[in-house]
Design a protein that fits this description.
The complex is a heterodimer of chains A (292) and B (273). Chain A has 292 residues and is mainly α. With 273 residues, chain B is mainly α. Chain B contains 14 helices and no strands. The chains are: A mainly alpha (292), B mainly alpha (273).
């Protein structure tokens, strides 16, 4: 019998505690989600039974699902590019010789340390019709009041604004860290070549920031799936599902409608999306390693 | 002195940067305004509006915030301790031991960077009820303890420790756990600090999973308590909600203002590695 090498034994022993936790709370629930999505909803009279892909059929026939999927897509499209662009702008400013730079950086970053729930409480007041701050300012400018969160055409937009505000400062940090690694002589060299600021940014800074941009992009995509806390305060997905996002719908299906199999089916959609992101990230990381 | 006058473009740019900063901090400043003035001044901005602490007193008496604070404190401490334990051991295994299946296990671990506990609320709820941990602080914390992020971070840190340091400790008679505690952990102190700050601020603010898994005052963290408190149907006025909101964010905000540099550095380190 071959003897177990010490490195093997220690390696396994050291990984085991974390391995048990990951198995219990990450791997098992992931697999169980797929499995659960193949069963019917159990009731007191009829226990849950295997139904194959019926839940998926029901999902594809569910108009709320399509509404929610569309919302999630718009949410991603509305939050990701905007917050990344603002983050980059913030980082460039904070990295330059700006008067009161520390104060400005603090202002940009502060929303990151606030809980989304607290942020939503404050924003709720901004948005409330008539008495809210937004309407008060609008009235000062001669505009009429508007129910930002109660109007299906503005509810999702209002949610997106809060997310962008919350996230931009967080992403700024990563850009800032990357900017600080750009050697100063590079800038001198560019200046000697007569490169203007725009050329410098477009030809040197932006390409050097590509790995960071990819990293931030993937993070922003993950966040656009999971950042739904403010929905609980601001709209609860309403009005009429206008601002409902996928993960919120999962929560609602499981814990308000008590339809666990349907919640699992919706979760599978999220898992597949995240899996796709993982593949993109791994590909990108590969390229990054070659790049160095 | 021969200071060059700033160009109009530069002035405009500085103005824009400042305006954005003002815009970004305005919601918080507004919360301060509403919380420290009588409810009548919620939308009346007068320089000489009387200051008051009544809103805080009222918020504190409406809901068991003391208990919520305790719960959150216990929660973040428990999570941090668990994360340090599990991630240190696993990070050490991945950094320094050659064992069959290592690369596969590492890849599986990293999957958790994408498949977050938030997404698995439905099945995790089922598992927690199987374990009898619904409505317990351990139940909130357990899914976050073996964090892929922490394992990855510590593995990177441990990998940078020179082998000679380890060999010196071995010569002095340290076993593989002794080496971990005497050599690796001390060297990785800045990483622990960074990870700790990120972890505490994440879990101080976390909401969805705690909401799902708790249903009593004895376990609810601050965020969940605040959400119930601030619900429009609770009929509490804006000034009081603002005061409660500020109470909830105060410890973290204060820590951030005092240790701004460490915070920013921590988020940077944690993000880049």
């Amino acid at each position: 019998m071959p003897r177990l090498k010490p490195a093997t034994l220690y390696g396994w022993l050291l990984f085991a505690p974390a391995g048990v936790m990951l198995t219990l709370f990450a791997f098992t629930p992931t697999v169980a989600t797929f499995w659960q999505s193949l069963f019917s909803r159990g009731t007191a009279r009829r226990p849950s039974r295997f139904v194959g892909l019926d839940n998926y059929e029901a999902m594809l026939a569910d108009p709320v699902f399509w509404r929610v999927a569309g919302n999630s897509l718009w949410y991603a499209l509305g939050t990701i590019p905007t917050s990344m662009a603002i983050a980059l702008g913030m980082a460039l400013w904070v990295n330059s010789k700006l008067p009161a730079r520390t104060l400005v950086r603090m202002a940009y970053f502060t929303p990151t340390v606030l809980p989304m729930i607290a942020a939503a409480n404050i924003w709720l007041f901004f948005y409330s019709p008539d008495i809210g701050l937004l309407d008060q300012v609008g009235r000062g400018l001669g505009l009429g009041g508007h129910n930002w969160l109660g109007d299906p055409s503005t509810a999702l937009g209002a949610i997106i604004v809060v997310t962008v505000w919350k996230e931009a400062g967080f992403f700024m940090i990563f850009y800032l860290a990357a900017l600080q690694t750009i050697p100063p002589d590079l800038k001198d060299a560019a200046a000697i070549e007569g490169a203007g600021r725009w050329t410098w940014f477009r030809r040197v800074v932006f390409p050097l920031l590509m790995p960071t941009t990819l990293f931030v992009l993937v993070n922003a995509m993950i966040n656009s799936v999971k950042l739904i806390d403010h929905l609980f305060i601001l709209t609860k997905g309403g009005p009429n599902n206008a601002s409902k996002l996928l993960l919120y719908y999962v929560y609602e299906s499981a814990f308000s409608f008590f339809d666990q199999p349907y919640a699992a089916t919706l979760t599978v959609v999220i898992l597949l999306t995240l899996g796709l992101l993982a593949v993109i990230q791994v590909r990108g990381l590969d390229r990054r390693i070659h790049y160095r | 002195m021969s200071r060059v006058l700033p160009t109009p473009g530069r002035v405009l740019e500085v103005g824009a940067a400042w305006l954005l900063a003002l815009l970004w901090i305005a919601p918080l400043l507004y919360a301060f305004w509403a919380a420290f003035h009588p409810p009548a001044y919620v939308t009346r901005f007068e320089l000489l509006a009387p200051l008051t602490l009544d809103n805080f007193v009222e918020a504190w008496s409406y809901a068991p915030f003391g208990r919520y604070f305790l719960n959150t404190f216990l929660l973040v401490t428990l999570i941090l301790a668990g994360q340090f334990f599990f991630c240190t051991l696993a990070g050490y295994a991945f950094a320094r031991f050659e064992f069959p299946g290592r690369d596969l296990l590492f890849a599986l671990t990293l999957l958790q960077l994408f498949i977050l506990p938030e997404v698995l609320i439905v099945e995790n709820y089922r598992i927690m009820s199987g374990l009898g941990l619904i409505d317990s602080i351990a139940g909130i914390g357990l899914p976050y303890m073996a964090s892929a992020f922490g394992i990855f971070l510590l593995r990177q840190a441990f990998k940078q420790v020179p082998r000679e340091l380890e060999e010196a400790a071995r010569v002095e008679g340290c076993g593989f756990l002794g080496v971990l505690l005497r050599v690796y952990v001390p060297v990785a102190k800045p990483v622990y600090l960074a990870y700790g700050l990120v972890s505490v601020s994440t879990h101080w603010n976390n909401f969805l999973w705690p909401l799902v898994v708790t249903n009593s005052v004895e376990t609810r963290p601050l965020t969940v308590g605040l959400a119930i408190f601030g619900a429009p149907e609770s009929g509490v006025n804006w000034a009081v909600i603002s005061a409660a909101t500020l109470m909830v964010v105060a410890p973290l905000l204060l820590a951030f203002l005092l240790f701004q540099r460490q915070f920013v550095q921590s988020f940077m380190t944690a993000g880049i590695k």
